Amino acid sequence: MSRIFSGERLVIASHNAGKVREIGELLAPFGVAVVSAGTLGLAEPEETGETFVANAELKALAAAKASGLPALADDSGLAVEALGGAPGIYSARWAGESKDFAFAMAKVHEAMGAEKDRSARFVCALSLAWPDGHCDSFEGVVEGEIVWPPRGTQGFGYDPFFLPRGGGLTFGEMDPAAKHEISHRADAFAKLVAACFR
């Protein structure tokens, strides 16, 4: 059974400013003050899980135990059909040490070659953990396709590369509020809110 969040402060278990900002905006209506793991100087645990959910739980539990506060972690990535679901849980690693997503997008494009199937999905797992080890996890998905060249400067990561199904704008071209309504993170977040927030 999911546990109801009743605190006022929540650690976002991420050092990614774009991700922290996006989750903070989603949590704003609940009056929750968010602080990032980076701001608290918490170490990033090694992501050894084999699924998005496993990695999200690993990060949330590490941040909750280190901070003594409930923590919310996200593990998300791009899964390309023609690449057997890659880069998947390794999406950030494809961007290298410098987190260069222009390089990562070019790498995915090159790996796809002349493949005609451009279908892809963004997957997001959200895990809310407490210092006592309790953890609730939720997964969201948005279907779409890869476009080349990338378009738009909004968003972050692979956003300029991803055209949601039925849409005319990539996540990189969309207004952030419009993206929030349909994204994989919004899908997972709606499930989290329904279960853990009042």
UniProtKB/TrEMBL annotation:
<comment type="function">
    <text>Pyrophosphatase that catalyzes the hydrolysis of nucleoside triphosphates to their monophosphate derivatives, with a high preference for the non-canonical purine nucleotides XTP (xanthosine triphosphate), dITP (deoxyinosine triphosphate) and ITP. Seems to function as a house-cleaning enzyme that removes non-canonical purine nucleotides from the nucleotide pool, thus preventing their incorporation into DNA/RNA and avoiding chromosomal lesions.</text>
</comment>
<feature type="binding site">
    <location>
        <position position="46"/>
    </location>
    <ligand>
        <name>Mg(2+)</name>
    </ligand>
</feature>
<keyword id="KW-0479">Metal-binding</keyword>
<dbReference type="GO" id="GO:0000166">
    <property type="term" value="F:nucleotide binding"/>
</dbReference>
<dbReference type="GO" id="GO:0035870">
    <property type="term" value="F:dITP diphosphatase activity"/>
</dbReference>
<comment type="subunit">
    <text>Homodimer.</text>
</comment>
<feature type="binding site">
    <location>
        <position position="179"/>
    </location>
    <ligand>
        <name>substrate</name>
    </ligand>
</feature>
<keyword id="KW-0547">Nucleotide-binding</keyword>
<keyword id="KW-0460">Magnesium</keyword>
<dbReference type="InterPro" id="IPR002637">
    <property type="entry name" value="RdgB/HAM1"/>
</dbReference>
<feature type="binding site">
    <location>
        <position position="76"/>
    </location>
    <ligand>
        <name>substrate</name>
    </ligand>
</feature>
<dbReference type="GO" id="GO:0017111">
    <property type="term" value="F:ribonucleoside triphosphate phosphatase activity"/>
</dbReference>
<feature type="active site" description="Proton acceptor">
    <location>
        <position position="75"/>
    </location>
</feature>
<feature type="binding site">
    <location>
        <begin position="184"/>
        <end position="185"/>
    </location>
    <ligand>
        <name>substrate</name>
    </ligand>
</feature>
<dbReference type="GO" id="GO:0046872">
    <property type="term" value="F:metal ion binding"/>
</dbReference>
<feature type="binding site">
    <location>
        <begin position="156"/>
        <end position="159"/>
    </location>
    <ligand>
        <name>substrate</name>
    </ligand>
</feature>
<dbReference type="GO" id="GO:0009117">
    <property type="term" value="P:nucleotide metabolic process"/>
</dbReference>
<dbReference type="GO" id="GO:0005829">
    <property type="term" value="C:cytosol"/>
</dbReference>
<keyword id="KW-0378">Hydrolase</keyword>
<dbReference type="GO" id="GO:0009146">
    <property type="term" value="P:purine nucleoside triphosphate catabolic process"/>
</dbReference>
<dbReference type="Pfam" id="PF01725">
    <property type="entry name" value="Ham1p_like"/>
</dbReference>
<dbReference type="InterPro" id="IPR029001">
    <property type="entry name" value="ITPase-like_fam"/>
</dbReference>
<dbReference type="InterPro" id="IPR020922">
    <property type="entry name" value="dITP/XTP_pyrophosphatase"/>
</dbReference>
<feature type="binding site">
    <location>
        <position position="75"/>
    </location>
    <ligand>
        <name>Mg(2+)</name>
    </ligand>
</feature>
<feature type="binding site">
    <location>
        <begin position="14"/>
        <end position="19"/>
    </location>
    <ligand>
        <name>substrate</name>
    </ligand>
</feature>
<comment type="similarity">
    <text>Belongs to the HAM1 NTPase family.</text>
</comment>
<protein>
    <recommendedName>
        <fullName>dITP/XTP pyrophosphatase</fullName>
        <ecNumber>3.6.1.66</ecNumber>
    </recommendedName>
</protein>
<dbReference type="GO" id="GO:0036222">
    <property type="term" value="F:XTP diphosphatase activity"/>
</dbReference>
<keyword id="KW-0546">Nucleotide metabolism</keyword>
<dbReference type="GO" id="GO:0036220">
    <property type="term" value="F:ITP diphosphatase activity"/>
</dbReference>
